[in-house]
Amino acid sequence: MKIYRMIISVLLPFFLLIFFASLLTTKPYLQISKGLYESHEDVYFDHDYAVDRIIGYLNYRYDDLEFGVDESDDTVILRETEIDHMVDVKNLYTTLRVSALISLIVAVSLSIMLYKKNYKEFYKTFKNIYFAPMFFVLFVGGYLLIDFDTAFTAFHQMFFTNDDWILYSTDVLIILLPQNFWMISGGIILVLFSLSMGLLYFVNELINKKKAS
Question: Residue 80, Cα to own-chain centre: how many angstroms?
Answer without folding.
Answer: 25
